[in-house]
Structure formats: structure tokens, C-alpha cells
Amino acid sequence: MPEGHSVHRIARQFDRNIVGRPVRASSPQGRFAEGAAVLDGREAVEVRAVGKQMFLAFENEVWLRVHLGMYGAWDFAGEILADPTIASANGRMGQTNQRGTDIDRVYDDAGENSLSSIGAPRRSRVRVRMSEQTTGLGADGEAEAEWPPPVVGQVRLRLLTDVTCADLRGPTACQLQTPDEVLAAITKLGPDPLVGDPAEGEERFVAVVRRKPTPIGLLLMDQNVVSGIGNVYRAEMLFRARLNPHTPGRDVLEEVVRGLWRDWVRLLAIGIETGQMMTMDDLDPEAYRRAMASRDDRHWVYHRAGLPCRVCGTAIVLEEMAARKLYWCPNCQR
Questions:
Q1: Where are the beta strands (DSSP E) in the chain?
Q2: Keywords in UniProt for this one (predicted)?
């Protein structure tokens, strides 16, 4: 499932390529035909990301709400404008690690790179989901020339401008909403560090966690408690805090709860900047390059069941918590 950093990156891509332009909307699959007909011909005027959900506003106060869920994905084609704040002066995409060292973009074979990792502006075809990987390029690196691009697979919604195409596949939610419905949907969600005042978000998060008997490992995944954290960030944040995932929220020291929020603020920013869920700190340039290129070198505990803990050597445990995989070190997180 895409986690918060991916959805914010997708929203930024919509802001760069779709917002401010009239949009042709269609539902090649047919399951969103009525909604597409309402959107067709309207100008996109605003986009918001809150946690794992994106809200795209069109003229005359019509909103599109999209939740990608476990299997949803956006495919972009056409002129994809990358984020200029992370483009280097020579036009290549650069990357800055936590220690401030500029290095060349590393392409992740497992596919967590963002749209901007392909460089821009250029014509390209990319898929944006948690894996956020480039697809559809020819052997010479040039993208498909046909425009608009052919529909591939089950496309719930296609949004098309003169130069950019966005195809939505397999979302959990794709629906039109009124402004009041959007406000109600956002109000139900827990705080997102990039929405509203982060200090107020911290207070909301601390207040909820500190009164709950629910295990902290469940609370971090509850989108009504905090927005955007998924399985990867959950496991990594708990390890970084050396916190047992079964500890009831109300038993977690307030300073530790505040530390969790502040760590989420930091990790979310890194994920948005790099397009990857980098959760290890203070890596030298070579170790950082390895981590960017391979998920196996990027995380403390996630996806490391049975392997020795990077800190103490104890075998990492894998268990199920509310039908989701949980990775943790029983020694470091006692």
C-alpha cells in the first residue's frame, strides 16, 4: 500500500502537470463513467494530499477523492515536469542524504523512485504507486510516441490535458464529493505533518495515543490517529524509538510519543525528497548509495525476518498484528 510520502509526491505531480488546465475525463473501464462525465471539460484548480488520500478540486466546487488502497496506482504519460527544487543545475536529478552530501540519483531496482527520478522535462511513461517505478520506455530510453497513449489494462479514470495523461487503476476509493464532504473526510483523519500546523498535529497525536489502551503498533497504523503511516514506516519508527509494538498507547511515556511524531515529521520529509522510504541515519556516501539502490540496505527491521538485528544481532521477529506483517527486534524493543 502506498504510504504518505508517495501520496504527497503524487499530489505534487498533479499540481505541476494537471492543476490549472482543462481536463478531458473518461472511464475506459466504465466503472466511473458517470463521475468522469461530470469532470470532463472542467479545469482542475487545486490538489490536496492528506495521509494516504488525495483530493483533486475542479471548477464549480466539484472534488475527486482517491484512495489507492492496497492495489491502486496512477500512471502518468506525456510531459512530466519534475520538482525543480531537487533538480541539479546541469539538468540531472540530484539527491541529498541526511548528512547533506549531494550524490547522483540512484535508480532502485525494486522501484521506489519517484517521477522526478527520471529527470525532466521530457516525454516519458511512468507508474506512481509505492513502487513508483519507470515503465514503458523503449530500448533507447525514448518514450512511446503515440498520443494520447493507448489504454492499457483496467483504467478506472483517465485525466488528459493537451500534454499529460494520468491513468488511475485499482483504487479502493474513487468518488466525487462536495466541499462539505471533503471537509468531513479530512476531519476524520489523524494529523498529517504537511497539513496544518505540525505543532498542533503533535498535540492531537499525543493526546489520542496517551489515552488509548490499544497497542502502539496498531495506533500508528490507524489513520484516525495519525495520517500516512503504513507497514514500513510503522516497523521502522518503532525500532528507531526502541519501543515494543505491544505496549499500550497509554503506557508509552509522553516524551516517547512526542519523539514518534517528530520522527514521522522527519521521515516523511525524507521520503518526499528522495521518493524512497529511507529510515537509516548517518550513512557514509557509499552506504547511502547502497541503501538508495536496494531496500535490503535501507531499513533497520522491515522485511528482515530471521536476519540478525543491525544493532544487537538478535533475530528479527515477524508476526501478524491485525492481519498485517510486523517486524521487530525482541531485544532492542523490549
A1: 24-26, 44-50, 53-58, 62-67, 73-80, 94-96, 102-104, 122-128, 157-160, 164-169, 173-177, 317-321, 324-328
A2: DNA damage, DNA repair, DNA-binding, Glycosidase, Hydrolase, Lyase, Metal-binding, Multifunctional enzyme, Zinc, Zinc-finger
